[in-house]
Design brief:
single chain; alpha/beta; Rossmann fold; two-stranded antiparallel ribbon; 43% helix
């Protein structure tokens, strides 16, 4: 059974000045705007993250510039091409206007609409038509024109590649192969018509891991970063294996926040209940679904996998409909996190506002003891206080530091 690419991703690199000027002025700051869906963020499986080509490119650029700033205002949403076009047309595009460099990845959500997978992840139907190719062409062309309106440069690099592999039934092979060829020919034509530069997907290369996931692999992100580096004659590309450990950790937390829609720049903002649960869901080990575990949530609900995973661990469905619309409390988040990792309990703690008859007390004390959570300067923990974005960032980062090997083991099977 052959493995085939089943989607198209577009990487657009827009340079605000000529290549020679960007790479010659090494002492100047470079403004980089990243646009795209969750594949661009570094998502590499259902609930796992690697390092995105966006961050790898930024690391490479830092070898040439004293400062590289990245704007991700249009990154991380599950954009179809039409949704992205609407956002660019109707939202503040000041970041695009001021950018020296823009990357865009789009098309994944469009084509996944025409893919049907069975429970084993095998492709059982793929029904896009030539009319869909033409529709995608029109929208991508409109996106490029909108970006072109905001920048005077013609230094645009478009990479056509389909990073998604799946087990394909024999009768689908020929039509799938032809569709991908048509999509890439379409993309190349649009790019050349705009006077931009097209990078064939062959320059990125096939993925030796033969992923069965419906989003890119880490290999794909590495190869896109290498293709970008080669196109602009930069120094050796930064890849996942060469990323510093501290950068990898910070990057994972930032990517996770992007995916669930938390803006880390709003440090004091309370974390919505739903987003907090989605963060916790990334730590839950993958388990086989069983009919013994039921939930009132529909499978299409963003929290479905998280709630099923929690219940498989023996954690009851943690919210009511009204509670879901509220914000997450510090004590409840700590309680669920401790249960997910089986942290155990600690009888005695240092927080003067935590009573031992509080069911959360022993869990809070245990996570405080191993350095994952902390209290306030007045010696309190304030478990009923809403968790802030800043506090969540610290907790997640410390969770990775303490349980890194366990998290790697859990997410590698997803």
């Amino acid at each position: 059974m052959r493995k085939w690419v089943i989607m198209i991703c577009v990487l657009v690199l827009v340079c605000g000045v000529t290549e020679e000027m960007i790479w010659a002025e090494e002492d100047e700051a470079l403004r980089y705007v990243a646009i795209g869906d969750e594949g661009t963020m570094g998502a590499i499986s259902g609930r796992s993250f690697g390092v995105s080509y966006v961050d790898l490119i930024a690391e490479t650029l830092k070898q040439h510039h004293s400062t590289v700033t990245i704007s991700t205002d249009l990154l991380g949403k599950s954009y179809t091409s039409e949704a992205l076009l609407h956002a660019i047309e109707n939202e503040n595009v000041e970041s695009i206007e001021e950018a020296d460099l823009i990357t865009l990845s789009i098309g994944r959500q469009d084509l996944l609409n025409y893919v049907e997978l069975n429970e084993q992840g095998q492709l059982v139907a793929f029904e896009p038509s030539m009319s869909e190719i033409l529709k995608l062409r029109e929208t991508i062309e409109a996106i490029l024109l909108e970006i072109k309106k905001e920048t005077s440069s013609n230094q645009v690099y478009v990479v056509g590649y389909a990073p998604i592999f799946s087990s394909v039934y024999a009768q689908e092979e020929e039509s799938l192969d032809e569709f991908i060829n048509q999509a890439n020919r379409m993309l190349e034509t649009v790019v050349h018509e705009q006077g931009f530069h097209f990078v064939p997907y062959s320059e990125v290369g096939e993925d030796p891991t033969h992923s069965y996931e419906t989003i890119p692999t880490q290999h794909w992100h590495d190869q896109v970063a290498k293709a970008f580096t080669n196109q602009l004659n930069l120094k050796k590309a930064t890849t996942y294996s060469s990323v510093r450990a501290d950068l990898l950790l910070e990057n994972r937390v930032s990517l996770l926040f992007r995916k669930v829609g938390i803006d880390i720049t709003e440090e004091d903002k309370p974390v919505p209940y739903e987003e907090a649960l989605l963060v916790l869901g990334t730590f839950i080990p993958q388990m086989e679904e069983t009919s013994l575990v039921t939930t009132s949530l529909d499978r299409s609900d963003p929290l479905y996998e998280t709630v099923v995973g929690l219940k498989q661990l023996g954690i009851m469905e943690p919210f009511t409909p009204d509670q879901r619309k509220s914000n997450m409390q510090r004590g409840e988040f700590t309680m669920i996190l401790a249960q997910i990792f089986g942290t155990g309990v600690k009888e005695v703690g240092d927080f003067k506002d935590i009573q031992m008859d509080d069911q959360r007390a022993k869990r809070i004390n245990a996570l405080e003891h191993i350095g994952i959570v902390e209290g306030y300067r007045d010696g309190t923990f304030q478990p009923d206080r809403f968790l802030s974005n800043r506090e969540l960032y610290r907790i997640v980062k410390r969770t990775y530091e303490v349980y890194f090997k366990e998290i790697e083991k859990r997410t590698s099977s997803k």
